[in-house]
Amino acid sequence: MSASTKTVKPIIEFKNVTQKYSNGTKALKRITFKVDPGEFVFIVGPSGAGKSTLIKLLMREVKVLSGTIKVCNYDLKRMPGFMVPHLRRKMGIVFQDYRLLDNFNVFDNIAIAMHVVGERKSVIRDRVNNLLKLVNLEDKKNSFPNELSGGEQQRVAFARAIANKPKLLIADEPTGNIDPLLTVEMMDLLMKINKLGTTVVMVTHEKSLVDYYQQRVITISDGKLTSDREQGGMFDEA
Questions:
Q1: Distance (Å, whole) CA 97 – CA 150
Q2: CA-CA-CA-CA torsion sign (14, 222, 200, 110)
Q3: What DSSP assignment string belongs to the chain?
Q4: CB atoms < 10 A from the CB of 132, how many?
Q5: Cα(68)–Cα(195) distance, rounded to whole angstroms?
Q6: Which residues of the chain have a pLDDT value below 70?
Q7: Cross-strand pairs, 196
Q8: What distance in Å separates the CA atoms of residue 99 and residue 96, rounded to the nearest whole number?
């Protein structure tokens, strides 16, 4: 990077973040890290390490107790509750269980994200059709979730998550319930989304997956950030 290059603002910034569970136990302990626009970052660590708490904080599902968090230029500690929907429109989220609407077909499951923000019908139609091409589901647009395979349901969830062109995509253990072949398919799709310019943060516990894809790896253990390795780093055993 040349000296004249303008400094890029992080899309995620945690500074000395400490968070407690309801029973008083510390879930996160003075966590500090940054994620720049366009990065692909794995968040790894054993069960109970604090990964789920970190995701809840990113979404402002819970408010930070101590320290500061900035996401997409929002200060999550100072942000009033009515601004949370505005924050979430800047991000796409894919959960392990996909959360598709059973009574909506594939097209409408993807389109609903745009209806919520008041997008024009013509824009919705064109964008959903483009997303269906991206995830190779053009022939399934009139199908309902119970008519799809697990891999197809997953692709619908990804298409819906990026329907509003989010700056940030969060994938929370998206490979936990699928077989190895579907895992590769899902990862290829995530990589494609990242190459199109979306920042991707993926929470996972799968060592082989992290080692194979050779992206930045942030490791959390017992609520602490124990390592932060740039692209090419290997998964740290906790």
A1: 10
A2: negative
A3: --TTSPPPPPSEEEEEEEEE-TTS-EEEEEEEEEE-TT-EEEEE--TTSSHHHHHHHHTTSS--SEEEEEETTEETTT--GGGHHHHHTTEEEE-TT----TTS-HHHHHHHHHHHTT--HHHHHHHHHHHHHHTT-GGGTT--GGGS-HHHHHHHHHHHHTTT--SEEEEESTTTTS-HHHHHHHHHHHHHHHHTT-EEEEEE--HHHHHHHT-EEEEEETTEEEEEE-TTPPPPP-
A4: 20
A5: 29
A6: 1-6, 175-180, 231-238
A7: none
A8: 8
pTM to 2 decimals?
Answer: 0.86
What type of residue sits at position 144?
F
Give the helix/strand (H/E) hosting 172.
strand 168-172
Contact 45, 223 (CB under 8 A): no
Q: Does residue 26 contact residue 223 with C-beta atoms inside 8 Å? A: yes
In the block, which residue shows the tokens 């966590």?
A: 31
Using CA atoms, how far apart are residues 132 and 148, in angstroms rounded to an integer? 14
Q: In whole angstroms, what is the distance from residue 209 CA to residue 212 CA?
A: 5
**pLDDT value at residue 185:** 79
**DSSP sequence for 194-225:** HHTT-EEEEEE--HHHHHHHT-EEEEEETTEE
96 SS3 class: coil
| 29 CB-side CA count, 13 A | 11
